[in-house]
Design goal:
Blueprint (H helix, E strand, L loop, with lengths): L2 H8 L8 H11 L4 E13 L2 E13 L2 E10 L6 E9 L5 E8 L4 E7 L2 E7 L7 E5 L6 E2 L6 H14 E4 L2 E4 L3 E7 L4 E17 L2 E11 L4 E7 L5 E7 L4 E5 L1
Parallel strand pairs: 9-12
Antiparallel strand pairs: 1-2, 1-17, 2-3, 3-4, 4-5, 5-6, 6-7, 7-8, 10-11, 12-13, 13-14, 14-15, 15-16, 16-17
Length: 248
């Protein structure tokens, strides 16, 4: 698949596709309530042992883009521990974010003028607590434990900061983004930096993947996406925590 076509298909939240491609998509989707962009699961491994599975789905629905995820602890019939739904507009602006956990408690985030307003409910509270953040609606949501949200940020980086020059894939790098971590009730600055193609062992076979480093004030992660498979996130390495995240 050509670079531009793949990025257009993936970067649905950032309206970068050509008019012709957009028109084709409208005809294709006519009569359909939603279109899947990506779905699957990530295994989270600590010291080589699988501890959590994240199941996710990214879709277009009624002009918006929905990123749904749920977490289960490893083990047979383990119940869903956490779930989240992130909704962004066709222009990449936050419409809403919802998170909840089986132990009780939930939160929502929504834009209001120049602020993002987070409302937090606990199992014992009768009224949600409210916390405002002076952040634009284009800020990323990077909540704890949801790796599909990192995939969406990588797509945004590729779509808005990379271009094809004479067959060469060139990216502005590094690039900083403002993000909100709702469960921590804090805002952060994160940095994405293109490293380039690397051979990576994935489930016993060697793959040519594109590496992008994600870092912040207190963390450094390595992310690998597959340029031959719609730039989907395939692997994450978090050396400081002896943790790997691998797509099933």
């Amino acid at each position: 698949m050509k670079w531009h076509t793949a990025i257009c298909w993936l970067a649905i939240a950032f309206t970068l596709c050509s008019p012709a491609l957009s028109a084709d998509k409208k005809d294709k989707d006519k009569g359909s309530g939603s279109q899947e962009v990506d779905s699957g699961s990530f295994g989270v491994f600590i010291k080589g042992q699988r501890v959590i599975t994240e199941t996710f789905r990214v879709e277009q629905q009624n002009g918006a883009n929905l990123i749904k995820a749920q977490l289960k602890e490893n083990g047979g019939a383990a119940p869903v521990q956490q779930k989240s739904v992130l909704e962004i507009s066709a222009k990449g602006e936050l419409l809403s974010y919802e998170w909840s956990q089986s132990a009780g408690g939930s939160l929502t985030v929504a834009p209001s003028n120049d602020f993002l307003i987070e409302r937090i409910s606990t199992a014992t509270s009768s009224k949600p607590a409210e916390q405002p953040f002076l952040m634009p609606s284009t800020s990323a949501i990077l909540d704890n434990n949801f790796f599909v949200q990192r995939e969406v940020l990588v797509w945004r980086y590729l779509a808005t900061n990379c271009k094809n020059e004479g067959g060469n894939f060139k990216c502005q790098s590094p690039v900083e983004f403002g993000a909100l971590v709702p469960q921590d009730r804090t805002s952060v600055r994160v940095r994405l930096e293109m490293v380039g193609q690397e051979k990576v062992n994935l489930r016993g076979s060697e793959r040519d993947l594109l590496r992008i480093n994600l870092s912040g004030e207190s963390f450094e992660w390595a992310l690998w996406v597959d340029p031959q498979d719609q730039y989907k996130l395939m692997k994450v390495a978090i050396p400081a925590d002896d943790t790997e995240v691998i797509r099933d």
